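Sample entry (365 residues):
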Amino acid sequence: MLDHLARHTLLRHALITLVAGVAIFALTYGLSPYRNYQLATVAAYLCATAGLTVLVGLSGQLSLGHGALMAVGAYTYALLSAELFDRGTTGPLLLVLPLVAAVIVSAIVGGIVGLAGARLFGPYLAGLTLTLTIVVPAITTTFADKLGGDQGLTVVVEPAPMSLGATFPLERWQAWVASLAAMLTMFLLANLVNSRFGREMRAVRDDEVAARLAGINVGRTKVIVFVVSAATAGLGGGILAVLTQSVSPGAFSLAFSLFLLMAVVIGGIGHLAGAVWGAVLLVALPEITDSLTNSLGSSPTLAARLDGNVSLLVFGLVLILVTILFPRGIQGLVSAATVRVRRSARRPTIAEQQPTTTSSESIDV
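Predicted structure, serialized as tokens:
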């Protein structure tokens, strides 16, 4: 059975996704509403960090604008959900259609950026994606009558389906929706990474010249990866709009894009599973820093100044420590520990290492 799963990647990933889904479903019943909301937020971030891991770690393209791509998805969701609600659309369509639109619009924006940056690399590509964090707030200000300006937009979100019960917690329903989106994202990306295209993607990352000589269309590969990564970021932005029930440009600042990139590096930029650690850190570290700031007993004015800056400081310190101590990130450390455990389990005992002797050999001795 294990050998069969090892040979069939799709089946193995489907089984892992199913087990994860059952575990999360059971976990939501044991968590408080606030913890369920945090779980949903982790899942929303995971959609973005997973795509960013594929883009940066597995294709070698650097992006500093994924927060802006999440904003594209969030604003698309807010605008379309309001339009559908005004036209009397309710039920699952009010949730699914805006999410699909968020993915499509973000993918289109990602395709435009990918085409523009197909011949760029390193800091030049980072500079191009950095412009997204400037353009998106500028657009919201220019079209303030439609996009709400600095105040943003209110997102139309329906309560949990009545079939679940009148007292069913909204946070649990949000955790289900966000987790489903995250698991679908991880399932699709995991199969993409292990496909022929995934091998071409890693070949482009390792050596573009060698990839061209092998017949790989480097430009097309880069654009496709950027489109996929942008689509997952748009899905994460749409889910985040559902959770927060509001969208504003301040929520998707340059600092947020830097947080996404740092979370991916800390989690393990060469491993898709590292995106999970990164998403958890994006939720856990700000809460830890807030608790640290409150424990200092500082004045409200100083606390307001420290808000955000302390999170950036803590993220930076964690990034430095992880880079020095665990260059492959948290997932790299976990993978290395797992390999060591397996090797020690397979290591023969002293009795097994000693050669067995026949009865005649014993008589000779």
